[in-house]
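Q: what does this look like with fe (ii) ion bound?
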Amino acid sequence: MSKAAIAEALSEARERTLALVEPLDDEQLNRVYSPILSPLAWDLGHIANFEELWLVQTIGGREPLHGELGRFYDAIENPRKIRGELPILRDEELRSYMADVRGRTLDVLEGVEIGPDVEDPLLRDGFVYEMLLAHELQHNETMLQLLQGVAGYEPVRPEFEPGAEPVPETPELVRVEAGEHAVGAPDRGFAYDNERPHHTVELPAFEIDRTPVSNGAYISFMEDAGAEPPLYWEREGEEWVSTARGRRTPIDPAQPVIHVSWDQADAFARWAGKRVPSEFEWEAARDRLDGLGHGWEWTSSDFLAYPGFAAFPYREYSEVFFGDTYKVLRGGAWATHPRVARPSFRNWDLPLRSQIFSGLRCARDA
Ligand SMILES: [Fe+2]
């Protein structure tokens, strides 16, 4: 990307962030809606503070605008359940901080070198700028998670309305032969450290559904196995409705199911006589299945480092989360910006979480 393209993309991302919160007043931005999600004012301040840290302080060598404020926006130091009580910026002060940081970012951008031959890996090919863009757009999705719990929220853009391409209730199975498969992000181009190195994995033959599980199929599972409904579902007579955003919207059986936990996904797959695929099965079949945009899809894989992993540019992005606590999700949801959803992208979360836009597709041994 050229500097002009970077500036343009940064501005598009910021317009999107501000459009998301446009219908809300300051009281709603500051309110704690859920102990597992930040108040929106924290997300907004964190987006700007992360930008200041990387694009102004690290790249530009400048001092922060608000001294020690940054420690309240550190995502690792401040768990979501306490973020509403922190002395973070609010209201007008928050809005001017976001604008002031952006002004400085563009100022610094003028004077940096970002070509392919630049020595600093942060600047080479504009890595740090792509990282910041992705960060803001990923926080847009987290904000959309919270907005599902805000009664009366009326989005100003159609892309903020839930919805995906319809999927069949009985998916077609795709067979993938045993062999070696290339996985991970290519060496060039933007990707997070956890997507690298690019490498090959050996997989036995398997079959995987071409499309994710539909609401209709999930309803059959609940009726047959007495399973719990996804988050925001309520029974209304013979029908199911979604209560997200305080509305009562009929559940469309042809939409892919979302808001299911890993445990629910695993139980569904067993009920269907199949299993949740591994993340490498998902990736190996990506060219042959309807993959991105339906919802994040739970996989059976723990969030682990690839062989030869090197943390970059900071340990707290991926490395501190490696282990058997988190499960990997692949794909991307209606709420995921296309810049974020790439085939090698690894999302991760706790198996019990369902406030994320998470569904699944099934696989089985061939
Ligand atoms: Fe963040």
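The pocket of fe (ii) ion is lined by residues 46, 50, 75, 135, 139 (CB under 6 Å). The radius of gyration is 21 Å.
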